[in-house]
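User: Fold this; tokens only.

Assistant: Input:
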Amino acid sequence: MSKKKILLLIASLFLTKQSYAQKNIDVYGSLGYTYLNGFSFSQANKVMNSFSGFNIGLSGLYNFNPEASISPVLGLNLNSVFSKNSNSVNNENVKGSFNYFTTSALSGIKINYFNNLPIYALINLGYSPSNNISFSGDNSNDYTTKALTRDSFKITNHYFYGATLMSSYNVADNFSLGGSLTYNRHSIDLEMQTPPESTTERSGFNEYSVNLIAMFTF
């Protein structure tokens, strides 16, 4: 085999290796603070008004052109929110918890203009298959026994859409740390069982989340 053919073979192998070395997948975990407000219930507004707590999530993004200055990305997110509130109702301190798990599709762009500091602009579209909401009072007056019994409230048809702005700094070849800001607009059906009545109200609410993220790139 001639030297020219050997050099061409080596160059071909090098280019093939480089193409396979492109890092197309970003996987990151997130942990942060979540605030919920903007509920529009007419009957449950005394206890369903605002909540605050924390969230924890796991996400993955696929970069279609990781070497470009701007790359389209597509991915999935799994997230859990754990939030609480406290209200005074009929001279009683009522405490509530609103916990839910979501799964959502992510799409947007990855901006690579700055060295070691990519920026992500994402659109979120999701659904919550698991919701847990409960309230409890300080004593056993009529309000507590009739309105705040276990399973008095049930949430169904929980959907949301929104946007996330995120950035991370590369601290190693395939690992980076950063943060994100997320806004989502949710809609839910709330079924209230206060014997002998049962009513259902629909409402939207706002989610504001600030997170720290740890990302691996493959």
